[in-house]
Design a protein that fits this description.
By secondary structure, the chain is an all-alpha fold. The protein is built from 8 helices and no strands.
Length: 151
């Protein structure tokens, strides 16, 4: 994959990268940092990508790792202003979005990857490094939790 193709593919994924990062990170600035870090790491390690057809899966895995790193770094650093801004921001979202964000991370991430981003069970299992059966179970539980919360 050359530089131009990399750039084109990243631009196509921009919205998807943001959406996936938002499932783990609540702050928009952290999401932007995670996406930038992902693009930088992916570009530096482009030679590690074995097949171009797995580019989206590969990028998503890098993004999740970046998000988890940011969560670890910021674990005890939540300024009051950010906390209040997050509360005000949540008022602007739909009830469904808020309930999805309230799911435990192990259910929320596969749910968003499958139902929002359109990844297949096989791709999600590669991204999250688990079995397809495990992903099916997490999706089933996420749907049940959402059904209980919304209806």
């Amino acid at each position: 994959m050359n530089k131009d193709e990399f750039t084109t593919r990243v631009l196509e994924m921009e919205k998807s990268l943001y959406c996936v990062s938002k499932t783990i990170l609540s702050n928009d600035e952290d999401c932007k940092d995670a996406i930038q870090g992902t693009i930088l790491k992916a570009y530096k390690n482009l030679s590690d990508l074995r097949q171009d057809c797995y580019f989206k899966t590969w990028m998503t895995r890098i993004l999740l790792n970046e998000c988890y790193d940011i969560v670890k770094r910021n674990k005890y650093q939540v300024p009051y202003e950010d906390y209040m801004a997050d509360l005000e921001e949540k008022e602007n979202y739909s009830e469904v979005y808020i309930e999805i964000q309230n799911l435990e991370e192990k259910y929320r991430v596969p749910f968003v990857l499958h139902y929002v981003e359109g990844f297949s069970l096989r791709e999600i299992s590669r991204i999250l490094k688990t079995t397809e059966a495990g992903i099916k179970m997490r999706l089933l539980r996420a749907r049940r939790m959402l059904r209980e919360q919304l209806f």
